[in-house]
Amino acid sequence: MNAPMRSFGFFALALGAALGLASPAAMAQQDRGGGVGGAIDTLNRAINPDQGRRDMSGSSDRDTSRYGRYSDQDLRDESSRLDDQSRQIERERRAVDDEMRRRGMRR
Predict the structure, then answer these.
(1) What number of CA atoms fall less than 13 Å from residue 70's CA on the CB side?
(2) How far apart are CA 35 and CA 28, in angstroms?
(3) In angstroms, rounded to a whole number, what is the distance separating the alpha carbons of residues 30 and 35?
(4) Closest Cα to residue 19, out of 2, 36, 41?
(5) Which residues in 4-84 belong to E strands, given as ranges?
(6) Among 101, 68, 94, 86, CA closest to 32
(7) Degrees (nearest 5) of the Cα angle 31, 13, 29?
(8) Where are the domains of the chain?
């Protein structure tokens, strides 16, 4: 096998592995409208949590918490994401409670 074909094979394998890892995350993101792009962003933040954060403050007093290095926009984005996630969990909890009630079960 020549070098270009070997390189292409390696690239295809790496891309397939990345898509395979991103697929479950992509499905989870689609409920919130993030789609594949949102899944890739989530995967990137999981792999590189500090990279890409827009830190405009430069102050050391904000660095005491997990979110101390986040910019104001990053904090708003994270808050919005958590609100969406909380609403989804509440919907799922109500659905489970309704089904349990329908079956005559208690929590």
Answers:
(1) 13
(2) 8
(3) 4
(4) 36
(5) none
(6) 86
(7) 5
(8) 1-48, 70-107
Q: How far apart are CA 94 and CA 100, in angstroms?
A: 10
The answer to whether 42 and 53 have CB atoms below 8 angstroms apart is no
Tell me which amino acid residue 6 is: R
pTM comes to: 0.39
Neighbouring C-beta atoms of residue 53, cutoff 10 Å: 14
Per-residue pLDDT tens listing for the chain (107 residues): 566 556 666 666 666 666 665 555 545 545 555 677 777 777 777 777 776 555 555 555 555 788 889 899 999 999 999 999 999 999 999 999 999 999 999 88
Which amino acid, 83? D
Number of Cβ within 10 Å of residue 103's Cβ equals 7
Angle at 40 between CA 22 and CA 71, to 5 degrees: 145
